[in-house]
Amino acid sequence: MKYQIEHTNIFHYETPVDQSMNHIRLKPRTDECQRLLSYRSEINPSSLTKEQVDLWGNTVETFFIPEVHENLEVKTTSIVSIQRSPFIKMVDYSTEMRNIYHSDLFRKHYLAYLNDTPYTFLYKEQVDEIVAEVGDIHNPVQFAIEVMRYIHERFSYDTNVTNVTTKAHESFPLKAGVCQDFTHVMLGVLHARLIPARYVSGYLYVGENSALIGDAATHAWVEVMVPGIGWCGLDPTNNVEALEHHIRVGTGRDYSDLSPLQGVYRGGQHTLTVNVSCTLLDSQ
């Protein structure tokens, strides 16, 4: 599958601002299942970007605008090719896999993806509520799948009840939120069961006549580390594996590691308009 993604962020400032310093994480990854064919970022007022790779392996572009401006527009255009195979039916939870999951070496290696952050923390009673429903499953892969299904079935997708600062323990009692909230809750449950899992930010191709949710802006889902297979994506918003319709931009511990655009400026308040367009170029 080959896609073109156009992502536009427009900041409208209530008063003119100056000395704007910004970081963007909008460049899709290249890995064993996904290849970035082309990428372009356009900034208005015009500015050059300096590219670097962060601690989690994500591309970060930094730019500085010294002159006074009332609006800031950041537009990126990417073409990405994806080929992923389903993994759920391939997983045999063998004795070897069980031993790896419970080994000290495995836990130390993925410690960053086992510890909770302020975004993914859940109270014990919140974790217990989900475990009581899905069952005390010893197969970590099957447990993650059941948690994904639980969140999809019990939580309502609602763009009006949370925001980018909402934490997992805050959205949990609401049983509502958006993909970011569902992902944080799922991470909190998996971490409580010592299953290495991380936050993924990217795009979702919905297409026509699809029941998938999450194409209006950037999308978020979970990746679980499966010994012998690697990082495998699960999307609690849609209760599906993250396969050829999920376009990965970056991975980290939570949303704060992957905010699409961060910056500081001197001036007043602002509003943000976001527009994302994901077009299928080739289905072969």
Question: Would you write up a description of this structure?
Answer:
By secondary structure, the protein is an alpha+beta fold. It folds into 2 domains: 2-82 and 260-282, Immunoglobulin-like, CATH 2.60.40; 88-257, Roll (C8orf32 fold). It has 6 helices and 14 strands. Strands 1, 2, 3, 4, 5, 13 and 14 form a 7-stranded antiparallel sheet that branches. The longest helix is centred in the middle third of the chain and has 15 residues, at 140-154. The radius of gyration is 19 Å and the shape is globular.
What percent of the residues sit in helical stretches (DSSP H or I)? 10-25%
> What proportion strand?
35-45%
CATH topology of the largest domain, what is it called? C8orf32 fold
Shape: globular
CATH A-level architecture of the largest domain: Roll
Backbone structural class: alpha+beta
CATH class of the largest domain: Alpha Beta
Question: What is the makeup of the main sheet?
Answer: 7 strands, antiparallel
Residue runs with pLDDT of under 50 for 5 or more positions: none
Rg, Cα atoms, Å = 19 Å
> What's the number of structural domains?
2
Terminal-residue CA separation: 6 Å
Report the count of strand segments: 14
Order of helices and strands: EEEEEHHHHEHEHEEEEEEE
Mean pLDDT: 92
> Count of DSSP helices?
6
Write the layout of secondary structure elements.
Layout lengths: L1 E23 L9 E11 L5 E4 L5 E7 L3 E14 L12 H7 L2 H6 L14 H11 L5 H15 L1 E2 L10 H4 L4 E2 L1 H14 L4 E8 L14 E8 L3 E6 L4 E2 L4 E7 L8 E6 L3 E13 L2
Parallel strand pairs: 6-7
Antiparallel strand pairs: 1-4, 1-5, 1-13, 1-14, 2-5, 3-4, 8-9, 8-12, 9-10, 10-11
